[in-house]
Amino acid sequence: MKVLVIEDEEELREIVKASLIKEEYTVETASDYGAALEKVSLYDYDCILLDIMLPGGNGLHILDQLKSEGKSDNVIIISAKDSLDDKLKGLELGADDYLTKPFHIAELNARIKAVLRRKQRDGKNTLTMGNVVLDLNERSLVIAQRPVPLNRKEFDMLNYFLLNKNRLVSKSALAEHVWGDHTDQADNLDFIYSQIKNLRKKFLASHADVDFEAVYGIGYKLVEK
Amino acid sequence: MRLANQTLKYLSISVLVVIALWSTVFYLFMLEVIHDNIDEELENQKRLIIQELSTNPTIAPDLAFGINNYKVREISEQQALNMQQVYKDTMLYMQDDDDPEPELEPVRMLTTAFEHQGHYYELSIINSMIEESDLIKNLFYSVVILFVLLVVSIVSINKIVIERLWRPLYSFLDQLTRFRLGKTQAKPAMDTKIQEFKDLQLAVTTLIRHNEETYEQQKQFIGNASHELQTPLAIMINKLEMMAESEELKQEQSETIAEVLNTAERLVRLNKSLLLLSKIENKQFLHNENLSLNALVLSMVAEFEDIAEFKQVEMNVVQVDQLHVQMDSALANIVVSNLLRNALFHNRAGGEVNISITGNMLIISNTSAHAALDADLVFSRFYKSDAASKGTGLGLAIVQAICQLYGFVLVYRYENNLHSFQLNMHP
């Protein structure tokens, strides 16, 4: 999987790159408008992360260029501006998603996975880890060939963890993804803990060979036992 | 009061005064003319009477007003010399054709003196003023009718003319009311030949252009400020997250990272809230649509279900009526979620949140461990009922800013040990 990161801020570009390499993607980067335009016209990428505020030009023009070549559907716009106009314009130009800075690494991973999955189009839409199979179309969970009932939020949580296999998912990233902006930071700790506990009980009851691993104070990793 | 009505008011008052003055003067003048006329008549009669009397060798004193309408009385020379010719209005008993008995009637009387063959006489001649008083009465009525007619016609002509003249202004005003900076493309315009209106239009257009420039700059500034802050925050958070993933971390280090991460995230929330607040105040959200508050509240309550359960708070929704409102859906979401969040997070275990929706009100009340809040401060920025709270202190300020944008009325009350936020969306 080849991913292009178009981002002018060097440090951010490097962190994103490092995180993507952990996911075993081939990562290329571009730091300005000219370089980005050159790369997208020369090569094909499975996913492009595009910062729209670039030195030398507007990232939306790059999107425009990609659209004219029919390649804009794997672009995730990354913008510091949470501007509805930009969002609408970007999605109109065929971008797949719009992510506002600052974002959590887990969230970026999840978004990239979603883009890549959509490109595969092999009909199957499941996430698998060990004997755990989550069907995204049916919104159902099967562990060791047995169906396990999940409520809506549990499904969303597990989905998020399966998109971030073996990666740290911070509590606030999880809270934001599953419960939106509605949680209170002071309560995150205990609340998320109680939700994880419920899910863990289901894993244990159905002999799943995956488990949550706590990272002190920060969050959890879903790992194979 | 509309300008046209105000003009009409002043105009009719001044017309009233002018006409009243004029009719009084006219009336007095006519009265004077009539009196002059009568006096001349009396003078004439006097001459005729004296002429006639002088042909008589002797004058018998005639002490009552008979058919001749005069009386004669002999007086001394001294009296005669002192006497002036006098006209006066007086009342006398007279009997007209239609009167059953004599009545007091207004008369004009001329009193004078004359000499005849060495004797002096006083002569009084009267002339009935009945006809004249009828005339004056008629005159008065005509003036009143004229006055009413004049006022009515001036008022109606004025109304038509003013409405025609001011029509461009009213249409201009209407366009201005609906004008939204950065939203409405067409500038308010009016089709008029009146110089003052043209000047007004020019002034307004200049003002709008200036404002649009400022608005653009402001918007760019917010965008830039956002960019400048969001990117370093992103770097900070992402670096910490990557660092937390490394395997060699000791528990202590990991906990320190968690603390820094939490602080950074607080900063992110604060920055987002401030940006949101300035966006609302700059009216950058105006994608209004017809929303059902009932549907929104129900879906939001479902979103909060897990958290409420975790906090052991019961949420009850009472839908008395359907509440529809014309507003931006993102802002409506923020209003409902901030109020619900507030009610949930300042609650106590075993408490409740009661949500009631009527045709114009959304009322969210909650139990709490805290006592009544200061109603004057509760919506101000950075107000925290609890100093230890890690909230931004902007949640309710944001709700209030949105309410002000849409003209909603949001009130905080403390009743029956419940903190109650009452939002009137159709005040």
Structural class of chain B: alpha+beta
Total count of helical runs of at least 4 residues of chain B: 8
Using the coordinates above, name the CATH class of the largest domain in chain A.
Alpha Beta
Question: Percent of residues of chain B in helical segments?
Answer: 55-70%
Using DSSP, what is the number of strands of chain B?
11
Biggest beta sheet summary of chain A: 5 strands, parallel
At CATH level 3, the topology of the largest domain in chain A is Rossmann fold
How does the overall form of chain A come out from the CA principal axes? globular
The CATH superfamily of the largest domain in chain A is known as Response regulator
Q: How many separate domains make up the residues of chain A?
A: 2
Stretches of chain A where pLDDT is under 50 for at least 5 consecutive residues are none
Radius of gyration of chain B: 47 Å
Largest sheet of chain B: 5 strands, mixed
Order of helices and strands of chain A: EHEHEEEHEHEHEEEEHEHHEE
Q: How large is the share of residues in beta strands of chain B?
A: 15-25%
Search tags:
heterodimer, A: 225 residues, Rossmann fold, Arc Repressor Mutant, subunit A, 2 domains, B: 427 residues, alpha+beta, Heat Shock Protein 90, five-stranded mixed sheet, four-stranded antiparallel sheet, 19% strand, rod-shaped
What does the model show?
The complex is a heterodimer of chains A (225) and B (427). Chain A folds into two domains: 2-120, Rossmann fold; 126-224, Winged helix-like DNA-binding domain superfamily/Winged helix DNA-binding domain (Arc Repressor Mutant, subunit A, Orthogonal Bundle). Chain A is globular. In chain A, β4 and β5 (57-58) form a beta hairpin. Chain A is built from eight helices and 14 strands. In chain A, the strands form four sheets. Chain A has a five-stranded parallel β-sheet, with helices on both faces. A four-stranded antiparallel β-sheet of chain A has the order 8-9-10-11, covered by helices on one side. A three-stranded antiparallel β-sheet of chain A has the order 12-14-13. Chain A has helices at residues 10-22, 33-42, 59-68, 84-92, 105-120, 152-163, 171-179, 185-205, and strands at 2-6, 26-30, 47-51, 53-54, 57-58, 75-79, 97-100, 126-129, 132-135, 140-143, 146-148, 168-170, 210-215, 219-224. By secondary structure, chain A is an alpha/beta fold. Chain B is an alpha+beta fold. Chain B has three domains: 3-152, no CATH class; 195-281; 288-424, Histidine kinase-like ATPase, C-terminal domain (Heat Shock Protein 90), CATH 3.30.565.10. In chain B, 56% of the residues lie in helices and 19% in strands. Chain B has helices spanning 3-55, 77-82, 130-178, 195-245, 251-281, 293-310, 329-345, 395-406; strands at residues 70-75, 86-94, 103-116, 119-128, 288-292, 314-319, 324-328, 352-357, 361-366, 409-415, 418-424. In chain B, a hairpin with a 2-residue loop joins β10 (409-415) and β11 (418-424). In chain B, α6 (293-310) packs parallel to α7. The radius of gyration of chain B is 47 Å and the shape is rod-shaped. At the A-B interface, α1, α7 and α8 of A face α4, α5, α6 and α7 of B.
